[in-house]
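FAQ: What does the model actually see?

It sees only this:
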Amino acid sequence: MHIVTTGPRDCRNSEVIRLLMVHLREAIGPDLLVIQGGARGSDRHVKEACRALGVVCETEWANWTGPCDIEGGWCRPFHRRRRADGTEYCPAAGPRRNAMMLYKWEPALVIALYRRPGAPRT
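And it is asked to produce this:
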């Protein structure tokens, strides 16, 4: 069973994510395959929990420095941004990667972790 996870980069509550992965592994068994986006925060915690529990976990990387997709409707002309180190990136790369994870893996379940606005950082 394919499960896609997504969540905030500032997520620090790895224990909640570990418990979620424990429950998923117990409920689904050896057919569990988790897919995450490779970012810091919740993605990293998901990957670490899967590794510790022996759950197969795939990473789908966003192509931040790759070309924009204006014709496909993901990007607007001249919307690239510049990092502090001077390199440019496409701000739509993350959402494009998230959509690609859904089309490529056809997950049975998508888990979106979040932090309530104004809530303490987890």
